Prior knowledge:
Blueprint: H1 3-20, H2 46-49, E1 71-72, E2 79-80, H3 93-105, E3 110-116, H4 123-143, E4 151-157, H5 167-173, E5 175-181
Parallel strand pairs: 3-4
Antiparallel strand pairs: 1-5, 2-5, 3-5
Amino acid sequence: MNIASRKLFLVIISAAVLLTGCTKKPKRPDPSATVFGPTSGGMINPIDVSTTADPLSGLEQRDPGFDLNGQMRGVLQPVYFDFDKSSIKASERAKLEAAAQHLRDNPTHRLLLEGHCDWRGTAEYNLGLGDRRASAAKQFLGTLGVSADRLETLSKGSLEAVKNADEATAAKDRRVELVVIQ
């Protein structure tokens, strides 16, 4: 094929592609005609969907308050640490005592202890420090009678820390989050 033939071939192929075009987008149904009916802002309220599952459907009920990952955040207060330290301050011990009481009151719940650090230090160092902080919280909860099989640790290091933060913000990043899990 010569150059003129190739150009003609490309023009014909391009025209064919352009003429076929894309199909039209499907028309969205009116919200009042759907199963859920009209909702505010287009969002489905998960409480309205079905809180009473059929026992024969095979669907298990979730405890209210748990997200799709089986976690409940914000129930227990985080434990804060001094810069580059993993020892639990006396002022923070009451938070861990409250966590131990929560586990005694809710025998099906467990705790995920997430260790966090501020933005300073290398990623590797901060992962290690986050792990030491989470392990210190686990050890303290063990002294309060909490079984080790109800506790999990995870180090997030400085992954969620605010970069170049001022001291007040960095102090909030140096923590162990107490996440209730199923």
